[in-house]
Amino acid sequence: MTGVNALKLVALDDEDLAVVSAHLQDAVLKVGDITWLPREKRFALVANRFAWEAQRTETGERRRTGLSFARVLKVQRSRVRGDAPDAVLNLLAVTFQPTDAPSGLVTLVFSGGGAIRLEVECLEAEMRDLGPAWETPNRPVHQLQD
């Protein structure tokens, strides 16, 4: 395995989820790598995350990573087509907004204006690296607005 050790993070509140979100910023995935299992109340995805914690100057690392949420009551998509499984998404952030505590809304925000919103009984998420890292010369860059 190259780089740092694999991560395994759990999020039970919005502060925990902010840490998970930071590690998943700029993860890329295909729509077909997203699933919701309504009977199990589980939502999951697999993505190639950019390992921001890997301290390299010229290149970076990516890792295959799973993200799952338990106690999911409802899933809504906006500008994310379920009928286009090969469409590529770039994950920018994952947020939590409490509604009637401990329930709330988790939003996965993608570049280009896409989003997936999960209505959850409570926040219960897990992020886990699934394998070794690989080197990538493509380091994500964000334009700063004035």
**Approximate strand percentage:** over 45%
Q: Please, how many domains?
A: 1
Gross morphology is globular
Q: Biggest β-sheet, characterized?
A: 5 strands, antiparallel
Helix and strand composition category: mainly beta
The overall pLDDT, averaged over residues, is 91
Order of helices and strands: EHEEEEEEEEE
Number of helices: 1
How big is the Rg? 15 Å
Distance, first to last CA: 40 Å
Unreliable parts: none
Tell me the layout of helices and strands.
Elements: E1 8-11, H1 14-24, E2 27-30, E3 34-37, E4 42-50, E5 60-69, E6 72-78, E7 88-98, E8 104-110, E9 115-120, E10 125-136
Antiparallel strand pairs: 1-10, 2-7, 3-4, 4-5, 5-10, 6-9, 7-8, 8-9
Describe the model.
This protein is mainly beta. The chain has one domain (8-131). The chain contains 1 helix and 10 strands; from the N terminus they run E-H-E-E-E-E-E-E-E-E-E. The strands form 2 sheets. It has a 5-stranded antiparallel sheet. A hairpin with a 4-residue loop joins strand 8 and strand 9. 26% of the residues are buried. The model has no long low-confidence stretch (mean pLDDT 91). This is DUF2948 family protein.
Q: In brief, what are we looking at here?
A:
This is DUF2948 family protein. With 146 residues, the protein is mainly β.
